[in-house]
Structures are given as C-alpha cells and as structure tokens.
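RECORD TYPE: protein structure
NAME: NADP-dependent 3-hydroxy acid dehydrogenase YdfG
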Amino acid sequence: MAKTWLITGTSTGLGRLLTERLLERGDRVIATLRRKGSLDDLLALHGDRLQILTFDVTDTSTMRDAVSQAFTTFDRIDVVVSNAGYGLFGAAEEASDEQIERQIATNLTGSIQFLRAVLPHLREQGGGRIIQVSSEGGQIAYPSFSLYHATKWGIEGFVESVAKEVAPFGIDFVIAEPGPTATHFAEGLDRTPTTTIYEDTPAGELRRALASGDLAIKGDAGNTVDAIINITDMPNPPLRITLGSTAYDSISHALKERLESLEAYKEVALSADRDEVT
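PREDICTED:
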C-alpha cells in the first residue's frame, strides 16, 4: 500500500533523493523547502502525488501553518521525515554569534519545533512514524564541527525522550545516523573566518584535509536513502540506525571507549551516593 510522507529539506542531498525514490515507487510526498523551483521537474513528472510547501524551519509560525495544511491535504500522513539542516565548520571561538545562532536555530530549534508541530496531528490520526535525520555526529565529535555536533547530540537527546512520551499514542521514531556520504553537504557548509591560532591543531588539520579533498567519503547517497526507506517499512524498527561503514566504525569505537571509561571510574561514581545508600 502506498504511503504518504512529509519531508523537510528536500531541495538537495538526501532529502531530494529520498523524495525521488519514494515517488518512483508510487508513494505520495509532501516536500518542504525554503526556495521555490528546485522540485519543479519532479512536480511535472509525478503530478498530484507530489505536494510542495515552502517555509523555513526557523520561522515557527509559518511552519506550523504549513504543517496543518499538509495534514489537511491528505487524510493521513504515515511518515514524517525531519531532514532540514546544514553544517557549520570551524573552531568554536572562530564562529560569530550570528553563525552560532543560525546553526542552532536551524538544526536544533527548527527540528524541535517541527516535531512539536506534527505530534498533535499524528496523535489525532492514531499514530505514525517519524524519521529524524541526524548523523554519526550525533554520537561522536570531530574538531571544527563543535556547533554542528551540539545540534545533533541535542536533537538525538530530544527525540529519545519524546519517543517515550508519545509511544502510548502509536507514534514511534527512528534516528538515522549517516556517516560521510557523497552529497552536497560539504559544499553547503557555513565556514567560520579562519585564524592562524588553530593552524597546527587538529582543527587546522581537518580544515586542510577538507580543502584538499583528501577525506574518504565511503557513503553512497542512493544506498543510504534505500536503507532509510527499508528501515521505515519495518513493523518495529530500532530507535537508531547507523548508516555507512565509517559511521559504524566511529560510533562503535566511541561507545566502547565510553563504556570502558564508565567502568574504570565505577567506584568514583558510586562514592557520590549518600552514605546510608552505600
């Protein structure tokens, strides 16, 4: 049976490709984007199975109105995909206040408000599934991506909590965590002004590697999108799905290190209890 999807951030990258694949298999998509025109070719090809809404996730009022319109257009929306976002690249102290505010407003606050906007509609229709597109950067951290990581770690914590709140209403979540993938993510980076202070630090090393194109990009966008669709079609998907060998290896390593550190300092942790407890 064909599904109806509501997807943010569909003008490029995984959002655009996800929209294409879903329409090709016969599903219906309500695609949102900030600028008109980037999906006109798909609209001409697929007709009324594609609906386009234009809004910026940082404009909460307009976004809420658009979400209500989306749920009014179709009797039911089966899957909601929160995908809008971008990366801010540079050492933390190099970023301007405006860059920091925009990164958080788009990736974190915008995603939170979008999910809050869809929840009442999903609850009223008796349930639904939400895919939050995060990244391996929601569980690990690279230098020069501190603000980006802050938003991804933040949205993952938000989703994990909300998933417990809304499970009784038949609403479930999947957090998709792709690793480096061949999309236009790097081209869309917002870069901080560079300083010489970090030239000989890990932040500077990553900056040079990114500029030279020496970073290995193992993830395939098509395979990543197919994996997201397949996991969404499962009756009982996991809360998190890691996508790509780089993401699997890096997250696995980080979790093992974290667990080893936790166990190594178990006595310190327990020493913080009240004396009558210990």
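COMMENT: The beta strands are 4-7, 28-33, 50-54, 79-82, 88-89, 128-133, 171-178, 190-191, 240-243.
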